[in-house]
Amino acid sequence: MPVVNGKSSISGYSGKAVKPIALRFIQQLRMHPELRDFPISGIGGIETWEDAAEFLLLGAATLQVTTGIMQYGYRIVEDMASGLSHYLADQGFASLQEMIGLANGNIIPAEDLDRSYIVYPRINQEKCVGCGRCYISCYDGGHQAMEWDEHSRTPHCNTEKCVGCLLCGHVCPVACIDLGEVKFKKGEKEHALTL
């Protein structure tokens, strides 16, 4: 803890860990009927252009970055601007304004999500750097479905244990894990999906 003249204090909560909470509040504020026309500023865990895009798509009109700059320097703002520019072009947006709140039409309560299927992870072994983060996260925070070959330093998904949470893909630092085979759960009727 920091010490100021022999004393300390318990402070707030910031950085990457607060991002899911911040996104939830941005979305809820944007959907509130009395606040729909007010500009909302997004803050909390913004470090990459992808983070910035998520805040914009859920309704933030402006963004604030503090902890990310403290950790990585002002250069991350340039990276965010560059990444967002490429994203806008790739998605066919003429401006950031077109993105604001666009994702809210697809936000539903968690209990209403379609859980009739599993999407197994697909691992690109050529991109994999053998860091083991997918294995550790799945083993300690998931369903122990990711198996690890110590000799080749490569992961493999055990589909008998996998529930399709894709935690492995979220923690992968080189994005070598993406959506793979789709399997409908036993007793569930197959239907069209948007992944």
UniProtKB/TrEMBL annotation:
Highest taxon listed in the record's lineage: Bacteria
Reaction equation(s) it catalyzes: 5,6-dihydrothymine + NAD(+) = thymine + NADH + H(+); 5,6-dihydrouracil + NAD(+) = uracil + NADH + H(+)
Pfam family, one: DHO_dh
EC number: 1.3.1.1
GO cellular component, one term: cytoplasm
GO molecular function, one term: dihydropyrimidine dehydrogenase (NAD+) activity
InterPro entries (alphabetical): 4Fe4S_Fe-S-bd (IPR017896), 4Fe4S_Fe_S_CS (IPR017900), Aldolase_TIM (IPR013785), Dihydroorotate_DH_cat (IPR005720)
PROSITE patterns: 4FE4S_FER_1 (PS00198), 4FE4S_FER_2 (PS51379)
Matching Gene3D superfamilies: 3.30.70.20, Aldolase class I
Annotated keywords: 4Fe-4S, Iron, Iron-sulfur, Metal-binding, NAD, Oxidoreductase, Repeat
Transmembrane domains' residue ranges: none
Enzyme class: oxidoreductase
Cofactor dependency: [4Fe-4S] cluster
Positions of the 4Fe-4S ferredoxin-type domain: 119-151, 153-182
Subunit structure, as described in the record: Heterotetramer of 2 PreA and 2 PreT subunits.
Similarity comment text for this entry: Belongs to the dihydropyrimidine dehydrogenase family.
PANTHER family for the chain: DIHYDROPYRIMIDINE DEHYDROGENASE [NADP(+)]
Function: Involved in pyrimidine base degradation. Catalyzes physiologically the reduction of uracil to 5,6-dihydrouracil (DHU) by using NADH as a specific cosubstrate. It also catalyzes the reverse reaction and the reduction of thymine to 5,6-dihydrothymine (DHT).
Protein name, UniProt field: dihydrouracil dehydrogenase (NAD(+))
